[in-house]
Q: What sequence folds into this?
């Protein structure tokens, strides 16, 4: 597994912008090239579904497959370069106190939830609902939503190809920090999934901090 | 941090539902999958063939596929890798979703007996025959950048650009291109999660049969997979055969193998 570490930490009070994202909620903000975004799992065991779009051309967006190919590993951690559909680096993971994040399993949706958990769970809030609402604010639609990164979610891929979704491994205050390598629109669904242990059955709020470029 | 009574009740309720769902799921033990189709078996009756396309190395092809029809991808001329995307014929915003496909079935090892899901909780394809069980659901097809990294600055065809051409010729655009599945790309991870390539797992004569479970438009690209270690870019042609398989029986393997597949087909029927 990729070694993880926390790079020299900047004090939260030095952030340019500081957002509180309630449990279950969508969120988006622009992050300029060189700025860093820190996503903090305030209470632990919270999955944070995240997408990136190039700020001045939303047709260029995060590509999970290109990211996996370029780094040659199924897990995201410190050092991972997030690659766009056009083969460009959108952001680099520069710090990670959790150790492993998923980009193979995508987001929950009402429709996929019926398949995974039964038709009775169709009318429960889900990540794709968040994504659709949030990208619509920027002129996009469902067709613009692609498989995402799940920060703080542990989805082991076995040598046989088997997948597991296991309990969240993040604790209160764990964070991941990314440096934007181009101007990006960051879109988050603070995952409302309550049908499996990935959120400890209890979605909780997160914090998003944006720091200025380091000299 | 103290947890309020309301939160504790909420957690307990969710946990109780989860345990119920898990118990219900365990009453539907998945059927054992039969393993790969034997090479040289499962021949298509000549009268069942609707169309045969020979896709040259590096090229792409697309076809409508009606629900109930099937597409055989056949390595008739040597080991190759064939990337695929698919759209619902009636709504291009519904498309193949590899993430839901692997998550819902708890595996990236797709093979005979598995199904492929759209992003709308519906089954797009049943894998009714498959001689390898070794396909790539995670890494995706080649791109201009992956070709440059593998082969240098030569001008070579790649899957990303092939799919852009496919999309544009059908009135769609780059926004409509979902991540691809690549058949006959034997990719697995090691114990640390690093991807590796298992060339021995594919050979001339391998095939996969995909039965359409919705009216679809399917696009294929015949380019070397970006992890293919062969030093030269030399993809052989592949055969794509659209054919009419027998109607599925009540106990059809793909429709009954798992409770998730059963529920996916219930969504198809709604």
A:
């Amino acid at each position: 597994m990729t070694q993880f570490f926390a790079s020299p930490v900047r004090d939260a009070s030095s952030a340019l912008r500081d957002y509180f994202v309630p449990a279950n909620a969508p969120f988006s903000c622009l992050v300029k090239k060189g700025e860093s975004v820190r996503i903090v799992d305030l209470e632990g065991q919270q999955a944070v579904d995240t997408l990136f779009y190039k700020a001045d051309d939303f047709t260029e967006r995060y590509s999970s497959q290109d990211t996996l190919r370029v780094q040659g590993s199924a897990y995201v951690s410190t050092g991972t370069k997030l690659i766009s559909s056009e083969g460009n680096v959108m952001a680099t993971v520069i710090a990670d106190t959790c150790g492993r994040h998923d980009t193979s399993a995508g987001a929950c949706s009402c429709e996929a939830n019926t398949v995974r958990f039964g038709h009775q769970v169709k009318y429960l809030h889900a990540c794709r609902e968040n994504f659709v609402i949030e990208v619509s604010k920027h002129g996009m639609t469902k067709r613009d939503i692609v498989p995402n990164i799940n920060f703080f979610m542990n989805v082991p891929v076995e040598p046989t190809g088997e997948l597991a979704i296991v309990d969240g491994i993040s604790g209160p205050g764990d964070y991941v920090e990314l440096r934007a390598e181009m101007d990006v629109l960051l879109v988050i669904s603070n995952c409302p999934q309550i049908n499996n242990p990935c959120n400890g059955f209890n979605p909780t709020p997160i914090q998003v901090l944006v720091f200025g470029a380091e000299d | 941090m103290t947890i309020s009574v309301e939160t504790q009740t909420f957690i307990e309720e969710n946990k109780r539902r989860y345990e119920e769902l898990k118990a219900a799921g365990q009453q539907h033990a998945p059927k054992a999958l039969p393993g790969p189709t034997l090479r040289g078996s499962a021949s298509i009756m000549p009268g069942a063939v609707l169309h045969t396309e020979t896709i040259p190395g590096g090229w792409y092809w697309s076809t409508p596929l009606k629900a109930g029809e099937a597409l055989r991808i056949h390595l008739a001329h040597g080991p190759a890798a064939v990337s695929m995307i698919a759209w619902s014929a009636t709504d291009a915003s519904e498309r193949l979703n590899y993430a839901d496909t692997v998550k819902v079935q708890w595996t990236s090892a797709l093979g005979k007996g598995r199904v492929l899901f759209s992003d709308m909780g519906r089954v797009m394809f049943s894998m009714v025959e498959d001689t390898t069980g070794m396909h790539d659901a995670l890494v995706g097809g080649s791109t201009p950048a992956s070709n440059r990294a593998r082969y240098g600055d030569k001008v070579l065809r790649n899957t990303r650009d092939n799919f852009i051409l496919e999309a544009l010729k059908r009135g769609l655009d780059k926004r409509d291109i979902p991540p691809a599945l690549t058949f006959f790309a034997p990719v697995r991870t090691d114990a640390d999660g690093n991807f590796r390539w298992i060339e021995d797992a594919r050979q001339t004569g391998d095939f996969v049969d995909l039965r359409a479970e919705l009216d679809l438009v399917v696009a294929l690209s015949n380019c070397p997979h970006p992890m293919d270690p062969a030093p030269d870019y030399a993809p052989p042609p592949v055969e794509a055969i659209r054919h009419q398989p027998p109607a599925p029986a009540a106990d059809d393997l793909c429709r009954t193998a798992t409770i998730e597949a059963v529920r996916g087909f219930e969504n198809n029927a709604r």
Q: What stands out?
A: Chain A has a mean pLDDT of 93.
